[in-house]
Write a structure and sequence with these properties.
By secondary structure, this protein is α+β, with helices and mostly antiparallel strands. It has two domains: 131 residues, Diaminopimelate Epimerase, Chain A, domain 1 (Roll), CATH 3.10.310.10; 117 residues, Diaminopimelate Epimerase, Chain A, domain 1. It is built from four helices and 18 strands. The chain has an 18-stranded mixed beta sheet that branches. It starts with a strand and ends with a strand. The structure holds the ligand N[C@@H](CCC[C@H](N)C(=O)O)C(=O)O. The ligand N[C@@H](CCC[C@H](N)C(=O)O)C(=O)O binds next to strand 4, helix 2 and helix 4. Catalyzes the stereoinversion of LL-2,6-diaminopimelate (L,L-DAP) to meso-diaminopimelate (meso-DAP), a precursor of L-lysine and an essential component of the bacterial peptidoglycan.
C-alpha cells in the first residue's frame, strides 16, 4: 500500500517523513530499507513516522536505512518541528516530541517573521558506561580510553544522547579512512547495542571538524546527536569551551552544553520535495 511522504534534510542528513495521522505503514523495518534505497527507493538516511502522543505534542519513530530503529535522531527533531508547524498540525513554536529516548524539545526560531533555524533542547548526556552501553566500565565514565581495532589502538570517549556514540579525536581528519574503520567500530564487541562513531579534529576551542559513521546508516553528511556527543566529549577532554561550531560534511551545527547540564543544538531544517511512494 502506498503513502504520501515529504523528503527533508538537516545539514545534509536526509529523511523521508511520513504523517502517521493520515498515512499507514504496516512494516516499518521493511519500508525503511525500501524507501531509503538511493537507487530503487526515494533515497534517505532514515524513515521517520510522526504520530499522536499521550505524553507530548507528537511522537516520532526513527528507522535507519538498514531498517533498525534508533532511540533518537537530532537532525530529525529539527525537521519534524518545522514540518508540524508549517503543515498546521500545531500552532506552537516550542514543541514536545516523544522519542524512545524521552521527550525532546525543539523550538522554531524566526528572524523578522521568516524561518531561521531550530534550536533543540536535547536533554542531558548519559555518561555511565553501563547506560551508554559500553562493556567493561561499570558505571564509570569512558574518557580517553583505549580501544583496539585490528592492530590499531584508538582513544575513545563515549557518550549517549539517548543513542550511543563513540568519539575519537584525531590530529588530521584527512588521514582517517571512515569507510574502513567505521563499520568495524560500529559492531565492536565493546558495544552491545552497536554504536555511532565520530571522528573529530579540534580546530580551536570554539570549532570542531567532525565526520560520522552512523549505526545502521553508514557515512552520513551530518549527525545531530553525534555533534552533541562530540562537544560533550571535547569538554570532558578539556579540548573546547562548552559552546562550539560543529563543522560537518553537510553544514554547521551550533552545540552548547549549558550549565543546567542540558545540551542545546541549533541548525537548519529544509523540506526538499514531497510525493507519493507507490
Ligand atoms: N542522524 C541522526 C542519528 C540517527 C540514528 C543513529 N543512526 C542511531 O542508530 O543511533 C542524528 O542526527 O542524530
Amino acid at each position: 500500500m502506498g503513502f504520501n511522504f515529504t523528503k527533508w534534510h538537516g545539514a545534509g542528513n536526509d529523511f523521508v517523513l511520513v504523517n502517521g495521522f493520515t498515512e499507514t505503514i504496516l512494516d516499518f523495518e521493511k519500508t525503511a530499507i525500501a524507501v531509503c534505497n538511493r537507487n530503487f527507493g526515494i533515497g534517505a538516511d532514515g524513515l521517520v513516522i510522526i504520530s499522536p502522543s499521550e505524553i507530548a505534542d507528537f511522537k516520532m519513530r526513527i528507522f535507519n536505512s538498514d531498517g533498525s530503529e534508533a532511540e533518537m535522531c537530532g537532525n530529525v527533531t529539527r525537521c519534524v518541528a518545522r514540518y508540524v508547524y508549517e503543515n498546521k498540525l500545531t500552532e506552537k513554536t516550542k514543541i514536545e516530541l516523544e522519542t524512545k529516548a524521552g521527550i525532546i524539545r525543539p523550538e522554531i526560531i524566526f528572524e523578522n517573521g521568516i524561518f531561521n533555524q531550530v534550536k533543540v533542547d536535547m536533554g542531558e548526556p548519559i555518561l555511565s558506561g553501563a547506560l551508554i552501553p559500553v562493556i567493561g566500565f561499570g558505571n564509570n565514565r569512558i574518557i580517553n580510553e583505549k580501544i583496539l581495532v585490528d592492530t590499531i589502538e584508538y582513544n575513545m570517549t563515549c557518550v549517549s544522547m539517548g543513542n550511543p556514540h563513540c568519539v575519537i579525536f584525531v590530529d588530521d581528519m584527512k588521514k582517517i579512512n571512515l569507510n574502513s574503520i567505521g563499520p568495524k567500530l560500529e559492531v565492536h564487541k565493546s558495544f552491545p547495542k552497536k554504536i555511532n562513531v565520530e571522528f573529530a579534529e579540534i580546530k580551536n576551542e570554539h570549532h570542531i571538524r567532525m565526520r560520522v559513521w552512523e549505526r545502521g546508516a553508514g557515512i552520513t553528511l551530518a549527525c545531530g546527536t553525534g555533534s552533541c556527543a562530540t562537544l560533550v566529549a571535547a569538554v570532558l577532554n578539556n579540548k573546547t569551551e562548552r559552546k562550539a561550531t560543529l563543522e560537518l560534511d553537510g553544514g554547521n551545527l551550533i552545540i552548547e552544553w549549558a550549565d543546567n547540564n542540558h545540551v542545546y543544538m541549533s541548525g537548519p531544517a529544509q523540506e526538499v520535495f514531497h510525493g507519493v511512494y507507490l
